[in-house]
Amino acid sequence: MDKKLPKSVLISEKKIEISGSKSETNRLLLLQAIYPEIIMKNASESDDSEVMRKALQQQSGKIDIHHAGTAMRFLTAFFAVQEGKEVILTGSTRMKQRPIHILVQALQDLGAEILYLENEGYPPLHIKGKSLGISEVTMLANVSSQYISALLLIAPFLSKGLKIKLQGELTSVPYIKMTLSLLSEIGVSSDFEGNTICVQPLKNIQKKEITVESDWSSASYWYSFVALSDIGTSLKLSSYKENSLQGDSILSEIYTFFGVETIFSNNEIIIRKTKLAKDLIFKYDLRNAPDIAQTIVVTCFGLGLACEISGLHTLKIKETDRLEALKTELSKLGAKIEVSDKALFLKSGGVIRQNVSIETYNDHRMAMAFTPLMLKTDIIICDSEVVSKSYPNFWKDVESVLIQDEIG
């Protein structure tokens, strides 16, 4: 269903409750399946996490994870070490176009039994679980950190633990550190030095309760709303930590460029527009937080600013080719934009067109990243329900903090 969004104004000082991080939740769900002593609070309510839950409960036969890329990577590793169990792991048409050969090769090098059922290097996969006796592997580091995290999550379950030697430049390092931090919380010892990660085995753990921090990627859209609002506008978001495990928490630093201040207080944040943007062009390397690229580019466009964003090579293998999707949809709105395999260049200025329909390409982040433009123009978001992949309450929250601009 398409959603028509009339030009509106953000109501200041409203509070929004955002559910737990999808990234943390999915890691903990896998660990919980191995170590049932783990108790999780404030888990993500996203479609991706629900897919992960159901798959872990099913444990046999054909498992369809739809568009959930994180689930595909994590479950590939999980089922590879489930001795005596056999699954077929498949997904949507787009999922079958997303490469997984680097992870599969690493697991095969460790002794896993995984076959491709259609195209070499891509899902669906036929996995026969077995005990993996090899404890050292080498893999490429510059494609997706989820491949590395998938191996790290099963590492404590292996009899000798795991040593991973990474080749090339590391991508999305904060997500690797998130995985290692969660392992540490349940008592796993690890070492991450240079391009080598060592994880020690863990047989048993004590009962452990872990509260998941709210999702910083979901917070990004509210940062954009505030950035596109008048000076003095603010919102409250909960529940967030100043010392976050999530790489996307860099938002609080990045959005100071757009005049948005972040105040941490009592397990929540207050984000307030305090001034205009620092400059007419925003330059940043987002290799460690690529999931917030769409939000930032749309913010720049809405403010009439230019931007040069690099470190975006992983965006081409997401739910859609996000670089091409951004170029296509922003161009409809009047933007002058160019993309390469790793970067995006947006020119400043230009008039924002009215009543443009934004295609979302089965990508939740396309839908939510473009929504704040409703503060500048009437806009239509196609296939609006796609937001449930990571933020099911998004439209309800949008309605709660906006009023229609009767003048504009």
TrEMBL record:
Molecular function as annotated in GO: 3-phosphoshikimate 1-carboxyvinyltransferase activity
Protein name in UniProt: 3-phosphoshikimate 1-carboxyvinyltransferase
UniProt xrefs under SUPFAM superfamilies: EPT/RTPC-like (SSF55205)
Membership in a protein family: Belongs to the EPSP synthase family.
Listed PROSITE patterns: EPSP_SYNTHASE_2 (PS00885)
Membrane-crossing residue ranges in chain numbering: none
The keyword Cytoplasm appears for this protein: no
Reactions catalysed according to its record: 3-phosphoshikimate + phosphoenolpyruvate = 5-O-(1-carboxyvinyl)-3-phosphoshikimate + phosphate
Family matches, as CDD domains: EPSP_synthase
Pathway involvement of the protein, from the record: Metabolic intermediate biosynthesis; chorismate biosynthesis; chorismate from D-erythrose 4-phosphate and phosphoenolpyruvate: step 6/7
Domain Enolpyruvate transferase: 63-396
UniProt keyword annotation of Transit peptide present: no
Keywords: Amino-acid biosynthesis, Aromatic amino acid biosynthesis, Transferase
Alphabetical list of PANTHER family matching this protein: AROM/DEHYDROQUINATE SYNTHASE (PTHR21090), PENTAFUNCTIONAL AROM POLYPEPTIDE (PTHR21090:SF5)
E.C. number(s) listed in UniProt: 2.5.1.19
BP-aspect Gene Ontology terms: amino acid biosynthetic process; aromatic amino acid family biosynthetic process; chorismate biosynthetic process
Name of encoding gene: aroA
